[in-house]
Structure formats: structure tokens, C-alpha cells
Predict the 3D structure of the following.
Amino acid sequence: MQPPVHADPVAPATRGLSLRRYGASRGSHAHDHFQVLVGLSGQLDLEVEGRGRHIAPGEGWVIAPGDQHDFESSQGAQCLVLDTSDLPWSRAVGRTPMAQRTLSLARYLALCLGQPDSPRLALHHGPALLLEAWGPLPASASRRRAIDWAALSLWAQARWQRTLTVADMAAVVCLSPSQFAQRCRDEWGMGAMQWLRQQRLVHARQLRGHGMSVAEVARRTGYRSPSALTAAMRREEAPAPLSRLSSPTSEP
């Protein structure tokens, strides 16, 4: 018997591991968290920020927060999906996993998800095991001093009323602006200012999730007006037509 499959985009309250089946495109969208996909069967065509990629069984990809993405599978595809805000996944953005070990682990976790009494220990440690299965960082990256991205995000949150620049953030982590910009591209798959905008929007969503009014959230996070905040949220969620996937990419 096939394990149950969740086809709809996951809500923030239900982040974690799930099984999903993909077919026709539903239009592009973005999340404020990482989305990790590992193919189990069929082939999934992804388009992430306009670039194509195919995911076959054992292959995987990590979609960074804020990246516009879409997906399509002409014959149907099933994937193990992890929705997570854990910052260590930034190290896996732009890298593919070690296919053989990832497929074995993904199949086991899929089996666990399909059981009436899911093994709690396996599903609790599954995300960490998936990250480990992505393999070590390239030697050149592992030699670099780590950036405390969580601390940098908190630093920015305390300064939303200011106009922050790449140079400001680079100074906090003791790097040159060009070095910091490159680290953003390497570790997050996005530009430095895009990362900063994403942190501000994530913070705004967190405050809204706690019941704060749009006007107060806009004031606290430095948006010029409540309508500017609302427009930023809508831009992130607005579907866009999927371009034909002639070159390998996309997402759920």
C-alpha cells in the first residue's frame, strides 16, 4: 500500500517532513523558509528564480527563503519534502546531495511517514540526517570563518528604522562588502540586499502571526506604510505563469 501523500503547499504551522505528489503546475510562489526536496519516484521539473532543474529519485534540491519557484511533472512525481527555518540548511543551497545515501534515507523516512504510528525518533532526527546526507562542504568553503546569520538577523531587526547597506552588514561580520556579498550568494543563493529584505519580511510575518496589527508591524519593521508592507507580502505570494521548462528547474 502506498503511504499517504500531501499535495498542497505546507502551512507554517505544519513545517516538517511530508510526502507530496506533483503533477501539473500550479503557478510560482515563494516561502519564508527553506524547502528541501528529495525525489522518490518519477521526475520533477523545477524552476527556481528562472533557472531549471530536474529531480529524479535520489536527487534533491534546497529552495532558499524568498526564491520564486514552480514545479511540474508530466508523468507524476513523488518527493520527500522538508519545510524548515533551520539556518544550517543555508549551507546546502546550490548543492546537490549524495544520491545513493539520500535515496535510502528518504525511502526509510517515507515509510515511517506512511505508518499509522510513525516512529517518533526517526522523524525527529530525520531532518538532521538529511542535512548530513547532503555531504560535506567543499574544502574551500569549510576553511572560511562561519558567519552567525541568526545573530546578524537579530542585529538587523533592531535597526529596521535605518537604511542598512551591504557595507553595514559586512562591517558587523568583519568582512569587506564584496566578501560579504559573495558569502550571501554562496551560502544563501541570493544577493545581500535580497537576504536583508527577506529577513525583514520574515520578521514582519512573525509579528503578524502573533496578532499585531498591520500598521504596528509596518512601523516596527521600517516599512514606509501599512500598504507598503501588504504589497511586499502579496508580491511574495503572487503566482506567476510557469515558463516552459526547456532547460533543467522549479518547485512546490
